[in-house]
Amino acid sequence: MKSAFEQIPECDTTFLFSDLVDHAVESLKPTELDEGTHDTLLVVALSGIAYLLELSSKDNAARGREEKQRDSLIAAIERHNEVSRSSTALHSRSKHR
What we know:
Helix content: 55-70%
Strand content: under 5%
Number of strands: 0
């Protein structure tokens, strides 16, 4: 199975990477349940994009930047999970009152 990036050259339609990012960010609409986690989810998304961009870099310093972005992505995911658990627990307690 080909990855999405491998299939891009085969597409008949051209698109800008910024359009893809805009669409992804636009789809991150907060709901009542994830209102408290919306900001952390956005940080995860942006960290993931930065990591993907560094993976595609080929200059001499790319490996160091890639490792730094990977660490930032992992930290953002962990922070989002913490906030999400707290938000879910808080929402659950308020329902039982």
